[in-house]
User: Which sequence fits this backbone?
């Protein structure tokens, strides 16, 4: 795990007297940042070092909030998140350009309203204070590149969107919105069907490449993840796996549905805390669906169910504990990662 060497690790002795410490929900509501992103900044990049309560809950100071605002400004200016720590090290002690330095007094504790620069769609700010309509241009950019049937242009547009809006900002809604738009159009027009095929082939390749890279940085026990769908139906499952890996959860993608005995042997060998099963609705052959039913009825570690077909498997009677994840892949990854990596935050 990487940490900013200029940020000393906080201890209980550093707790300021009186008010001035805020839980993660307050910080996310005030700054608009997604809690998934905030934890990633801490775990992966060491950009924020919150205090911890005896039970492990994070507490953020006014200086932390000011630092978060400054990070959002840098991301909005196009600085890559991997370079933000280096930029902050060379800045003056005044953390933010909006006067949000970590000073004393009531001003530090009062809620702050972002300025015009900070009010747009920032990197890693999905679903946190961002009006839904601002997400449409991101999907439109992907759609425009796809309509040209040019994967090079699509890749370049995608890269620019990631730099501008952050990974979560692109994939929380717009990415799947573009996918659903193309999927619907493909039902009515042969050329749109071709565009849909081009987009899904590019997307599966891109997400798979990102997943392989993200897994190199993961630590801890491995969680087998069964994603039996193929083709474009695999996209949502890949997005769940990638979002989980980006949060540090080591996942093991499996496309084939294992027998109960094989899965039991695998989880024991890996010391896996759970398994994940992602199923798109009405897209599995009867044999695969029956295999999933046998797997989930058998004894074993808890299973997390994701995808549109999750509720069709949740009512199985068996000894294995089953839990349905939220329908959004990124929200599902957030729940899964918190459950397996950071249960104190629940």
Assistant:
């Amino acid at each position: 795990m990487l940490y900013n060497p200029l940020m000393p690790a906080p201890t209980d002795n550093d707790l300021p007297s009186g008010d001035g410490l805020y839980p993660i929900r307050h910080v996310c509501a005030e700054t608009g940042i997604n809690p998934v992103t905030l934890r990633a900044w801490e775990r992966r990049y060491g950009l924020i070092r919150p205090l911890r309560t005896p039970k492990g809950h994070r507490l953020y100071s006014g200086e932390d909030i000011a630092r978060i605002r400054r990070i959002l400004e840098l991301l909005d200016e196009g600085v890559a998140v991997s370079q933000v720590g280096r930029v902050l090290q060379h800045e003056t002690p005044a953390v933010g350009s909006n006067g949000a330095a970590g000073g004393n007094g009531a001003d530090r504790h009062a809620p702050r309203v972002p300025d015009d620069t900070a009010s747009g769609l920032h990197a890693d700010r999905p679903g946190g204070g961002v009006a839904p309509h601002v997400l449409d241009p991101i999907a439109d950019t992907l759609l425009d590149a796809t309509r040209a049937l040019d994967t090079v242009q699509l890749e370049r547009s995608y890269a620019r969107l990631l730099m501008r809006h952050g990974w979560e900002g692109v994939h929380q809604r717009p990415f799947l919105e573009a996918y659903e738009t193309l999927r619907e159009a493909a039902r009515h027009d042969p050329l749109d069907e071709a565009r849909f095929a081009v987009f899904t082939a590019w997307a599966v390749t891109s997400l798979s490449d990102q997943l392989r890279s993200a897994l190199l940085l993961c630590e801890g026990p491995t969680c087998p993840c069964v994603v039996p769908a193929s083709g474009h139906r695999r996209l949502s499952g890949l997005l769940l796996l990638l979002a989980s890996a980006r949060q540090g959860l080591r996942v093991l993608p499996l496309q084939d549905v294992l027998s109960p005995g094989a899965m039991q042997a695998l989880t024991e060998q890996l010391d896996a805390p759970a398994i994940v099963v992602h199923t798109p609705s009405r897209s599995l052959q009867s044999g695969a669906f029956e295999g999933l039913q046998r797997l989930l009825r058998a004894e074993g570690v808890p299973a997390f169910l994701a995808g549109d077909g999750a509720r069709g498997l949740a009512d199985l009677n068996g000894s294995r504990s089953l839990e349905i994840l939220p329908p959004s892949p990124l929200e599902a990854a957030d729940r899964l990662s918190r459950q397996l990596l950071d249960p104190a935050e629940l």
Summary: Residues 1-18, 94-136 have pLDDT under 50 and may be disordered. Residues 30 and 88 are 21 Å apart (CA to CA).
